[in-house]
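Tokens for Roadblock/LAMTOR2 domain-containing protein. Go.
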Amino acid sequence: MANIETALKEAMALEGAVGVALVDYTSGLTLGYLGGDGVMDMTVAAAANTDVVRAKMRALELLGLQDGIEDILITLDSQYHLIRLLRSRHSGDALFLYLALHKSRANLGLARHQLRKIESDLDV
């Protein structure tokens, strides 16, 4: 089982990674982050993306859909922002991994695959 620091380092090892954070979306608190240097404040970005997660969860509720969210992709002109909700081993955990990537250098499929792997190894 990987700890938070190891998981964040694995995500930052991806080609094109700008920054990564582990976030509790019930509180908006960032449990850990790496990167973002000179490009974005990862704690602000992570906290702001809690609103994205909450909005999508509310939309599913309003629509009466019983599906869970695997990930959310936001495509900007120069970046991909990937939000991966973690399937908790412990009830009550409401966490997501937030990964920002340079669009021109990143492999989105590989990034999604790697986040799934990180999730399966992560022990919070």
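The beta strands are 17-24, 29-35, 71-75, 79-85, 95-102.
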